[in-house]
Inverse folding.
């Protein structure tokens, strides 16, 4: 079986990178730029972005992202593009804006530059876009022809986003090493379509080590408005290390359990990475991981304000049959639970979630 590793062609990270977008587009010599941007970013940074393109000598057409990242919207944008002039697509904003830009670039056959303005998940570096229907229901995963051409993370911008979003990104990144480790043990086929590579596994490990070393300090710095080295390390861990680590290292029980939890109305308000944090602890319970590892993960979550109990997920009064239904959903056919190195039943997941909850309630 072959191994496959995907990564963006270029990953750029630094403070004030928003001001250099025009230069990066000029370097691509691709023609005019078409940017899909979050309305909030337009209102606060619109002038900055426009002057960056003026300085780079690249014409810029802007479109504010509204509604859903849906196939209908993507199709509409592609049909409006002046393909004889536009040579590069940009996405500047949160997950749905970036996914829209990815999908537009895919269907228009153009390169894409992604500028995440939050570090709340590890999706920006992946070659997958999640499409929804206009009413918000999940539609499908769209596999792109290739990984994003350029990902630009402006640490100054990301540090100004609400601290809960950075913490959620740390929760999403927390699972990456443990899921890649499970896939390596089982020989699972990863999201990249092959076996996990040494490269992806090493980045997943570096991701975990970075979170443990710098996570707490980074959150404190962001609260104080400082863009420190620790903040930069966590941005890299959340976006790049975790991004390559999950896509080419593989997903397993943590994301499977996350997916199961999404059926519960009671935890709709909990962010992706927050659910993944609890689900990581539950995966370790399934694996009967050593106490030292449980303590490290539970302690990390507690320090970062990530949920480690059912109550913190909004599930304090959950009926056993509802939790069992989520456990069943986490073992759905074709989902990442199959990547575990042993058979996992819904009953096992149910017991692991209760064990994680008990462990989460303990101090230390
Ligand atoms: Zn995730």
């Amino acid at each position: 079986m072959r191994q496959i590793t995907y990564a963006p062609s270029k990953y750029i990270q630094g403070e004030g990178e928003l001001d250099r977008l025009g230069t990066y587009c000029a370097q691509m010599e691709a023609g005019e730029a078409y940017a899909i941007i979050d309305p909030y970013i337009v209102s606060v940074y619109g002038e900055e972005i426009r002057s960056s393109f003026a300085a780079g000598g690249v014409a810029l057409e802007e479109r504010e992202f509204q509604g859903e990242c849906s196939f209908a919207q993507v199709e509409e944008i592609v049909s409006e593009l002046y393909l004889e002039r536009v040579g590069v697509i940009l996405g500047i904003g949160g997950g749905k804006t970036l996914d829209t830009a990815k999908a537009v670039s895919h269907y228009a056959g153009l390169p894409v530059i992604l500028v995440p303005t939050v570090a709340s998940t590890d999706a920006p570096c992946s070659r997958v876009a999640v499409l929804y229907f206009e009413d918000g229901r999940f539609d499908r995963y769209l596999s792109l022809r290739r990984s994003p051409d350029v990902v630009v993370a402006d640490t100054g911008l990301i540090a100004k986003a609400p601290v809960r979003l950075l913490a959620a990104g740390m929760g999403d990144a927390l699972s990456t090493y443990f899921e890649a480790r499970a896939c390596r043990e089982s020989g699972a086929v990863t999201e990249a379509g092959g076996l996990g590579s040494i490269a992806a596994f090493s980045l997943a490990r570096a991701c975990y080590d970075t979170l443990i070393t710098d996570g707490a300090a980074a959150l404190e710095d962001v609260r104080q408005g400082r863009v420190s080295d620790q903040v930069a390390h966590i941005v890299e861990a959340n976006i790049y290390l975790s991004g390559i680590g999950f896509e080419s290292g593989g997903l397993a029980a943590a994301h499977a359990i996350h997916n199961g939890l999404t059926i519960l109305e009671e935890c709709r308000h909990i962010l992706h990475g927050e659910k993944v944090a609890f689900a990581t602890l539950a995966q370790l319970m399934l694996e009967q991981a050593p106490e030292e590892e449980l303590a490290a993960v539970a302690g990390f979550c507690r320090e970062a304000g990530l949920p480690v109990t059912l109550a913190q997920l909004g599930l304090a009064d959950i009926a056993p049959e509802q939790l069992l239904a989520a456990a069943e959903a986490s073992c759905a056919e074709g989902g990442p639970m199959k990547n575990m190195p042993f058979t996992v039943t819904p009953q096992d997941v149910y017991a692991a979630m209760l064990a994680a909850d008990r462990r989460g309630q303990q101090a230390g």
In short: Residues 163-361 form a domain with the Dehydroquinate synthase-like, alpha domain fold (CATH 1.20.1090.10). The pocket of zinc ion is lined by residues 121-122, 172, 255, 272, 276 (CB under 6 Å). The CA atoms of residues 47 and 53 lie 10 Å apart.
